[in-house]
Amino acid sequence: MPAPKQEEDVVVPLHLQPVVGRPEGWRARSGSFVAVALVGFVTISVLLGTVLNDEGPSRSQALVVPPASPTATARTTPRPTPTPEPRATPLPTIEVVGGHIPTERRLVYANGLQVLDLASGTLEATAHPLYDAMLPIGPDQLICACLLGGIAGGDTTVPPSLRFGRFDLTGTPIVQRDLLSFDDVIPVPDMTNGFNVVTALSPDRATLYVLTTARRPPVWSIDLYQVNVETGQVVADTSLGRLPVDLGKSSPKPSPSPSPVAGGPTPDGVYLWANSLTAAPNGRTVFASVQVMEVRSSVWASQNPEWMVPIRGGHPGTAIRIKPAANPKPDDWCIDSPTFIDSVTIVQVCVPGGPHPSTASSHVRRLTTKGESLGDLPVTGMPISDQYPPIAIVDTAARAAFVWDPERHAAARVDLDDGTVALSTVPDSMLPPRSQSERPMGIWPSPGLVLSPDGARLYALGMSPGSERAGSSTGIWVFGARTLDLLDHWEPRANLVSLAVSADGRFVYAAGAQGFDVEGHETSWPASVTVYDAASGEIQVVYGAVSQETWITFPDWQ
After folding, report:
1. How far is the C-alpha of 350 from the C-alpha of 106, rounded, in Å?
2. Residues with Cβ < 8 Å from 18, sequence gap 6 or more?
3. Is 489 exposed, middle or buried (0-12, 13-18, 19+ CB in 10 A)?
4. pLDDT digits (tens, 9 = 90+) for 406-439
5. What number of other Cβ atoms are within 10 A of residue 307's Cβ?
6. What is the mean pLDDT of residues 494-521?
7. 116, 108 contact by CB (below 8 A)
8. Running DSSP on this structure, what letter comes out for residue 511?
9. Nearest to 484 by CA among 449, 457, 447
10. Which of 338, 498, 504, 520 sits between 20 and 30 A of 274, alpha carbons compared?
11. Are 390 and 384 contacting, i.e. CB atoms less than 8 angstroms apart?
12. Residues 182-219: pLDDT tens digits?
């Protein structure tokens, strides 16, 4: 393992706060897919730990940037009936419709991570774009294991490396310190850069965990590092394993449905991706996983090694390798990241891949910190789509998992203790008529399912395929979180692609796609944000021109 680099830097004292809880989205190559989008749209996945303690879980709270002004704005404009804008007519730059305007300043993904002022609908400029996977450690600071240099083997003369960075919200660095160098890794063109990284925070936000895979023939290395958040120094590291980069003489055991690698022939060999990383709420265990793919004659065989790493005295102990029988099956796709629901139990929602019966459904994996399986919980009565992935989130306080199919408009609630499943489906009479010339949808919401801060309501984005390649939004569907009763439906003013709820639960924010109108036609429409009253669904304000150049999406850790 290469020795971490260290530099002397000015360090600013840091006030730490608990980690906010979060679900995660559909991610490729890692046992789950990233939400699908069109040209130039990249969804950034961020892994965070969950706010819990040994006595029981607490409800996740939104991370909100301190407001520039504490004064709320109230108006008495009556609510009109919300109707879709004509597709050739962009939304107004600002349209005050209801009686209240939020004063929050929220972090959003735009040109990197930026602050969106919900009182004005404007993005605040950054001194330096924050493109890396940033994690919040308070109301006004962000950290990352940031990638420096170019892709290994690329045109740049700067070798790739990782640097710890702590920044304010403008992107101005507060602490920077070199962590690791990847200048000696060997990439494989069109397959791997020779390294991969995922990160997570400890519950107290004092430690940044960094999981790396690095290809240094003759082996791949899998390593876990602990970084002090205040100083940026590596304080501990441990090896989780080494794997050969070349195939053995015997043929690998194929996945249940061996698949050709996209893009044509790929050099035979073994390829690794850091998959997921999360810390238990008591800080005593870290869960880590990677995806291993063996390629022989352009046919892959996949497996997903996983570990529980005990943390004692602030340092990692001997990792517990989870038995392969408890790992996701090679063809399974996990649609959210693993989530601790208490200090000893972790869950994850997965769907079967490869050939499967039409009645096949998703299921919830359950593991203990000892690496033992508690048995899967099937989401019975909710068949999966062969074309579009469902969305899943976990409510740690209620010990429940929710699954939403945006295209079929079907929802499920799974009790994570007894496996009881509640189902709800939007009646066909409430849905728009299907197009006679449907095309596969190229837009998928992220986040497309969010929970109110008190855990009482679910807000879900629906999508419908049409004659346009984007598909169109069917609006926001509101369910009771305990019973899944359909409570309300809010019409869209744009092609909605991302949801968030305000920290106080009063507002629901819905981002509209840049470059598409409400019906999914490609246009010059800017990215927009519509603010709904969370209780009544009344539109309070529409910001129709948040960005002309990029999409707006809400991080799923808020």
Report:
1. 30
2. 51, 203, 204, 205
3. middle
4. 999 999 999 999 999 999 999 999 998 876 666 7
5. 21
6. 94
7. yes
8. E
9. 457
10. 498
11. yes
12. 999 999 988 899 999 999 999 999 999 999 999 999 99
